[in-house]
Amino acid sequence: MTYQKFEKEIVDSINKNLLEGHQTLIKPVDKNNGVVLHGLIINNGLCNISPTIYLDYYYDEYKKGFDIEYLAKQIITQYQRFALEEDFDITVFTDYEKCKPNISYKLINYGKNKELLRDVPHIVYLDLAIVFYCLLSSSRSETSSILIRNSHMNHWGVTCDDLFNVASNNTPRLLESEIKNLTDIVKEIMMDNPTINLDLDSMPEESAMYVLTNKIKLYGACCILYKNLLEGFAKNLGSDLYIIPSSVHEVLLLPNNMEYDKEYLSELVKEVNSSDLSTEDILSDHVYYYSRKDDAITY
Fold first, then answer.
1. Which residues contact 242 (CB under 8 A, 6 or more apart)?
2. Rounded to whole angstroms, how far apart are CA atoms 241 and 179?
3. Do 96 and 26 reside in the same domain of the chain?
4. Are 269 and 244 in contact (CB under 8 A)?
5. Cα gap 18→220, rounded to integer Å
6. In tens digits, what is the pLDDT along the chain, a chain of 299 residues?
7. Contact at 8 Å (CB) between 50 and 18?
8. Of 75, 83, 139, 152, which is the most exposed, with the fewest CB atoms less than 10 Å away?
9. Taking the model in full, what pTM does it have?
10. Which one, of 52, 83, 46, 220, lies nearest residue 146 by Cα?
11. Residue 112 confidence (pLDDT)
């Protein structure tokens, strides 16, 4: 079944199972790296905002063998988890003083997002862009946020530098960084998934590689911007660092205490990006380098 036919059938199924008074709307939504998703908006007539559910992910599930009726029920359940029954206080976002404590930043690829960045306040950083958003709620299971656009910035009467200064204080506070050894992460995954058949005893006590992200593991690559974080970590290791952009959500830190070929590492990144990573999650196609002497990242 083509996506167009899938969309029609699943929306028909959803409409049949929704209570009276609900309306559905499909709206294209621009995401990271030029990806456009099909957002399903369900309005209950009781609230001024509605959750957006992306049908593209459910189409992938359909192609794996799940039937339309089952997926429609899953979507309705997802909607019911987030639906509000009274108006949302939009001044939380429209009033700068109310929004200010929740303004955060994230890193995206500059070249892959030029169209988006025309409408979004940003700061160019290396070959990346720092963009800003209002974090309304966050946990490992669910997060809601609003991307800050030029119209919002102009309405507030602030500058991009103002946003960066506020976000530089807020983001490490709201989204604490987390650095773990790769071996420890693999062991945690294996303990949570007993079906994975690997010999824990045969694994090294510690990997040469570390994973840097934030507490909710969402857009955690921006942790490389946190003040003194890389400086302190590199000092403890006694080594400069290769920064491997595994996705927009995390980076890998590799101490430069062994001989590594930077070009080879970049080729590995390109291979993973092209074969194992969704387009939306790609941060960069090459590695970066943190120098203790310069306290700076280069590429």
1. 253, 254, 255, 256, 260, 262, 265, 287, 288, 289, 290
2. 13
3. no
4. yes
5. 36
6. 899 999 999 999 999 998 888 999 999 999 999 999 999 999 988 787 888 999 999 999 999 999 999 999 999 999 988 887 777 777 888 899 999 999 999 999 999 999 999 999 999 999 999 999 999 876 655 678 899 999 999 999 999 999 999 999 999 999 999 999 988 777 666 665 656 555 555 555 566 899 999 999 999 999 999 999 999 999 999 999 999 999 999 999 999 977 778 888 888 899 888 888 899 999 999 999 999 999 999 99
7. no
8. 139
9. 0.86
10. 52
11. 96
Domain boundary among 173, 194, 210: 173
Number of domains in the chain: 3
Domain boundary among 63, 82, 101: 82
Cα separation, 292 vs 268, in Å, equals 25
Tell me: do 142 and 197 sit in the same domain: no
How far apart, in whole angstroms, are the C-alpha atoms of residue 218 and residue 175? 9
What are 34's two structure tokens?
């030029």
Angle between helices 55-63 and 68-82 (to 10 degrees): 150
Contact 284, 110 (CB under 8 A): no
